[in-house]
């Protein structure tokens, strides 16, 4: 079933689409020049004016020409949540784990163009040779979840936890891939590691083999869903509210806790609910529901399956013709899965969900700009992690990549 019928919106309609989540239509994902992007001025990075009005066709021509000139000096990586008009340029696509692994395997490259968000480009920089330049097309493409774990707040939380539990408390920090490089370094220095939604259970096993408690950040939901699946009760996982002294916890709660969950979330995945699942089941008998583990615990409990972006892709792709899938993840991926599986019914659990607004900040105009700059001998938007941070973040990432 085709779930999206492209339709042009005027600027006023687009502004409504991006400012009122309850009216966000999923049928408006059509390529437009950068200057016509919704809410363009409020969050896009400066870019030479000539790129603003270029049509999709002209951008396509210029990108193809620049790529041909750069040849094997360049590879383009694309995260599954990128829109179609960006993902079409990717040499390799995947979720953050697959892209990290792929970046680590790259040899004899000069440039990696990372169509994703900032923390992913940082990880690619850490995992590739120091000589490789990693470029993010739009430096404003961050991650709201990653931003919820400010390094200073995490350092303070670590101190407060040890003041409450005692300096010899056995706590191992685990950070989700969706975090700044200096937090990856922080866990690397303290016997911890990085995880993704593909391997959070293995990462927690690693951590619990080395300590009695885990401080997990920034996504409370991935932490809770993974901990629960491993057998921890909900009251063994205490929430750390970084806006409050001592995280809003008591010493008794902390002593009892096996996991201390940072109060962060993904604004895209937090919108999926158990009520939407109930509605999907009522309207589509036989539907299978699969959601991302960044969704709230109640949603994951109500679903048939949960798993990483790659697991969602495999579940839908490998299912027999005639299957019906309701999916709780980012709309660009759901739309692509619907398009690639015309013999199945594939739809998004939330009929009004918006794209991840930060992933959406990558537009072909930025790709054309950074590639043409490379041809002219200028590297723009390089993401470079400084060497001290790089050293320990690499330790934390390599522990993750070595997980069984
Ligand atoms: S989907 Fe959520 S976690 Fe992923 S980049 Fe967007 S805000 Fe961050």
What's the layout of helices and strands?
Layout: H1 11-19, H2 40-43, H3 56-70, E1 74-79, H4 84-87, E2 92-94, H5 96-105, E3 111-115, H6 118-127, E4 133-135, H7 144-147, H8 151-165, E5 171-176, H9 181-189, E6 193-195, H10 200-208, E7 213-217, H11 220-229, E8 237-240, H12 251-256, E9 259-262, H13 274-283, E10 288-291, H14 297-302, E11 305-306, H15 309-317, E12 324-328, H16 331-340, E13 345-348, H17 364-375, H18 387-401
Parallel strand pairs: 1-2, 1-3, 3-4, 5-6, 5-7, 7-9, 8-9, 10-11, 10-12, 12-13
Helix pairs in contact: 3-17, 5-6, 9-18
The structure holds iron/sulfur cluster (SF4).
Iron/sulfur cluster binds at residues 81, 117, 143-145, 178, 266-268, 330, 356, 358-359.
State the shape. Answer: globular
Unreliable parts? 1-27
The CATH architecture assignment of the largest domain turns out to be: 3-Layer(aba) Sandwich
Q: What would you call the structural class?
A: alpha/beta
Small molecules (ligands, ions, cofactors) in the structure: iron/sulfur cluster
Q: Report strand order across the widest sheet.
A: 6-5-7-9-8
Major sheet attributes: 5 strands, parallel
CATH topology name of the largest domain, in short, is Rossmann fold
Mean pLDDT: 91
> In DSSP terms, counting alpha (H) and pi (I) runs of 4 or more, how many helices?
18
Oligomeric state: single chain
* Rg of Cα set: 21 Å
Number of domains: 3
Total beta strand runs: 13
Q: How widely separated are the two ends?
A: 38 Å
CATH class of the largest domain: Alpha Beta
User: What share of residues are in beta strands?
Assistant: 5-15%
